[in-house]
Amino acid sequence: MTLSEATEKVKKLAANNGGKVKAKINFKFEEGLIHLDDTVSPTLVSNEELNAACTIKLSLENFDKMMHGNLNPMMAFMGGKMKIDGDKGVAMKLASLF
């Protein structure tokens, strides 16, 4: 999965499930970043690094696995495959979006 493909996937999910997280989140990968702003309607998704309540750092490979249900987010966090900076409560709300 490329950064562009991941961004499009997040945009589709946000369009269908926006308004549930009500926070700003950054997904940070080696290849770049996806910013999700669910404090506005419709939910905004971009590749700009903007202020966020939470930053989730992981590889695009593991992000793809999570999107397809092949990697449990809690196990990824516990196993060190995903790191969370900032409000971990916001990160927990992502399940409602994805």
Mean pLDDT: 91
The radius of gyration is 12 Å
Strands, count: 5
Query: Which stretches of 5+ consecutive residues score pLDDT under 50?
Result: none
> Describe the biggest sheet?
5 strands, mixed
| Order of secondary-structure elements | HEEEEHHEH
Number of helices, counting only DSSP H or I runs of 4 residues or more: 4
Kindly estimate the percentage of residues that lie in beta strands according to DSSP: 25-35%
Describe the protein:
The protein is α+β, with helices and mostly antiparallel strands. The chain has helices at residues 3-17, 60-67, 73-78, 88-97, and strands spanning 24-29, 32-37, 44-46, 54-58, 82-86. The protein has a 5-stranded mixed β-sheet. It is globular, with a radius of gyration of 12 Å. The two termini are 17 Å apart.
Comma- or semicolon-separated keywords:
98 residues; alpha+beta; five-stranded mixed beta sheet; 5 strands; 26% strand; globular
Helix/strand layout:
Blueprint: H1 3-17, E1 24-29, E2 32-37, E3 44-46, E4 54-58, H2 60-67, H3 73-78, E5 82-86, H4 88-97
Task: Describe this structure in a few short sentences.
This protein is of the alpha+beta class and 98 residues long. It has helices at residues 3-17, 60-67, 73-78, 88-97, and strands at residues 24-29, 32-37, 44-46, 54-58, 82-86.
